[in-house]
Design brief:
The chain is mainly α. It contains 8 helices and no strands. Helix 2 crosses helix 3. The model has no long low-confidence stretch (mean pLDDT 82).
Length: 177
Amino acid sequence: MTEIQYFGPNLKRLRLQSGLSQAELGAALDTPVNGQAISNWEREMNHPTYENLIGIAKFFNVMPSELLRTEKEAAVGETTAVLDRIDEYMPKVAEIRRVMHMMGDFSPRQLNGLAEQLNEIMHYFRPYTPVDEDGVPDTDQNGRTITKQSKYRDLPIKEIHQVYQELKAIQSYQSDK
């Protein structure tokens, strides 16, 4: 009988990349298994059934054969897939080059300023923990830290859009003069 190699490390790598515990992965499969089964597979103490192998591949959106390859073998397989899609990638590469050229016109100080502005904008789209005036995180009645959804959800989008439309109308009126 042929020994199955590389499955355990590949399974562990995919599970950790997805931020799942062994129990969470086991429960998420089409045919649920316990966390101990996942642990045994990762340590190559035993191996999944064919049905579980297919379920794991489906869950991680990979081919079953990819679970049994070394990293080098997987990289070679990905190379042919990339070559098959080269026409799709070429416009993206051209866009990246265009942006790189544009960024060459900016000073490091300007780029740092842009990065700070983008970071500030991104704060509106990330979950956050409210803090009081002393910087202490807000907690619920059980003492757990409160995490709120992004501030973006709190923005008055309709009002902002209305002001934008009014500014556009004013700008249009001024350019018609």
